[in-house]
Amino acid sequence: MKNSPSICQWYPSSLLSPVCAAVGEAIILHYMDNVLVCAPNDDLLSHTLDLTIDSLVAAGFKLQEEKIQRMPPWKYLCLEISKWTTVPQKLAVKNNIKTLADVQQLCGSLNWVRPWLGLTTEDLDPHFNLLKGGEELSSPRTLTQEAKAALEKIQDCMATRQANRCKSDLPLKFIVLGKLPHLHGMIFQWERVEKSKKDKDCRDPLLIIEWVFLSHHQSKRMTRPQELVAELIRKARSRIRELAGCNFECIHIPTEINSSRITKAMLEHLLHENEALQFALDSYTGQISIHWPAHKLFREQIEFKFSLKSVQSRRPSMALIIFTDASGTSHKSVLTWKNPQTQQWEKDIVEVEGSPEVGELVAVRAFESFLNHSI
């Protein structure tokens, strides 16, 4: 099996499958020569572990007793699992960057720990920027001052942050966090904790299971916030199916409320107007909430909110009308309007590099040019 990772994965699986069928609620996970046995109680755990060991020994495997971890913390696939939490094992962050290959190795390591430590795209952006350029792997690279500062912050996060172990009796939830253009989200559970006035060190009700992030670079030149939220929800739903084989009980999409009244029709309008959100929430039967649990972390990290405020007037507005257009052929963006004082048509033309969509976006400059006018 030394020369075939596929056989190394398949053969132990064939031995452990009958054990899994026999123990019912117990869970056996294995990858190559690493086996993790989980059970809801100690008796079943001990029984499952004995069956697992007997099955592997009978097949000719030699197990070293000192490598069987019976007490926490358990180390499995570079993770350190305690009774309540999960953290990556001590990761040596290489800060002596000399080549592009060193940067790729650093970014790969940081990307791996992101789901458990919640390292945002803003945290990693200075290091991602060092990857730009199509040079050879041996091309020289050095950490900028911004990258060094970011690395110090990341090392602090690695020393202080952790994820929680999932509780089977609590539902799984998801919430959208962050700020544009790099939104992120969190898969979490919320535990009801009775807190008395005397109990100042009450256990945190928030159980962080895993963080979810978007790609650093978007495939589209311009992406609407609704599309970013939809992509985040799609990734989170896919991930929770891998982790737990289920769906979220509730998805929290923070929404700006401009009045004390908000109707179901307003939320339905938000979903019906965006195709990306419809696909992301396809076949979803859980709740969608515009509110979020009261927690300091959510208050600090929710910097983006959907706005349900309508920007359309039901009555014609007596305002300046500006016509806009853009051309991908001439690379020009045009504004034209009728001057209310001279009654003469005027125009503003600028050259724009990029696609026609970028040229159309430049037309937003009309709002800057006519700050003191209703348009």
UniProtKB/TrEMBL annotation:
Query: This chain belongs to which protein, by name?
Result: ribonuclease H
Q: EC top class, in one word?
A: hydrolase
Entry's EC annotation: 3.1.26.4
Query: What Gene3D superfamilies does the database record attribute to this sequence?
Result: 3.30.70.270
Q: Which InterPro entries match?
A: DNA/RNA_pol_sf, Rev_trsase/Diguanyl_cyclase, RT_dom, RVT_thumb
PROSITE patterns linked to this entry: RT_POL (PS50878)
Organism, by scientific name, is Hirundo rustica rustica
The molecular function GO annotations come to: RNA stem-loop binding; RNA-directed DNA polymerase activity; RNA-DNA hybrid ribonuclease activity
Does Transferase show up as a keyword for this record?
yes
Reverse transcriptase domain location? 1-121
Q: Which family does it belong to?
A: Belongs to the beta type-B retroviral polymerase family. HERV class-II K(HML-2) pol subfamily.
Asked if Transferase is a keyword of the record, the answer is: yes
The record's section on Pfam families has:
RVT_1, RVT_thumb
Which segments does the entry list as coiled coil? none
Q: What UniProt keywords are attached to this protein's entry?
A: Endonuclease, Hydrolase, Nuclease, Nucleotidyltransferase, RNA-directed DNA polymerase, Transferase
